[in-house]
Predict the 3D structure of the following.
Amino acid sequence: HGGKDEGTRGTYFDTKEKELTLAVSKIIQKKLNKTGNYKVILTRNSDEFVHLSERASIADKHKADLFISI
């Protein structure tokens, strides 16, 4: 999700899925990078739409060992 694709909305707080997934991703990135054992690269760092094929290309470009979709 991101940009034009906001995902679903929370019914109680009207939260957008795209906002939650980015926030959670940034928290995970910070914690894992801090260990020194991982280098986490996000496919988006702001509210922008990135096609799945482009996300896969980013992972390939960085020779990712793991690709996690949140």
The chain has a mean pLDDT of 93. The longest helix spans residues 17-35. The chain has two helices and no strands.
